[in-house]
Write a structure and sequence with these properties.
By secondary structure, the protein is an all-alpha fold. 68% of the residues lie in helices and 0% in strands. The chain is built from 6 helices and no strands. Helix 1 packs antiparallel against helix 4, helix 2 packs antiparallel against helix 3 and helix 3 runs antiparallel to helix 5. The N and C termini lie far apart (41 Å). 26% of the residues are buried.
Length: 158
């Protein structure tokens, strides 16, 4: 479900940006809006890392897909801040919708990945054996993570 909402968000961003360009509408800014966007740009990437780590540890495809929304939130906060700064400094009314269209590729990519992961398909562990594939399993549970052929779960029981 998360992946589909991201794909719908991509469509919305394109339509909203097109409408803004058509109407020559500049993004409005408030101190609260800028503060929230700045906080999202700082907090969301940290939250994504935590969610991905937990998702790998507990084997939750849904939580990994949910982390994709956090990535998109950080992208959108960055775009908002860049658009507001460029409009404020240079007076370019069109920067917010143009920069917004620029992130649609990333929104769609995250949406497609979230759909694939939620279906139990390919995830980061299949590409390379990295730190995220070294799962710590409890001694009384089986290590059933799919980390690829060359990766082993780190299930140390004494």
């Amino acid at each position: 479900m998360v992946g589909w909402t991201l794909l719908l968000l991509g469509i919305y961003v394109v339509l909203s940006a097109g409408w803004g360009l058509w109407r020559h509408a500049a993004a409005e800014s408030t101190a609260w809006g800028i503060a929230i966007a700045a906080a999202a740009l700082i907090v969301m990437p940290m939250l994504v890392v935590i969610k991905r780590r937990i998702a790998h540890r507990i084997g939750s495809h849904a939580l990994k897909a949910d982390a994709a929304e956090g990535i998109v939130c950080a992208y959108m906060a960055a775009v908002l801040l860049v658009g507001l700064v460029l409009r404020t400094v240079f007076g370019w009314w069109w920067t917010d919708p143009v920069v917004a269209v620029g992130i649609v590729y990333f929104i769609v990519r995250e949406g497609r990945e979230a759909i694939e992961v939620s279906r139990g398909g390919d995830d980061d562990c299949d590409e390379d054996c990295d730190e995220e594939c070294d799962h710590d399993c409890e001694c009384d549970e089986d290590c059933d993570y799919d980390c690829g052929e060359d990766c082993d779960c780190d299930c140390d029981c004494e």
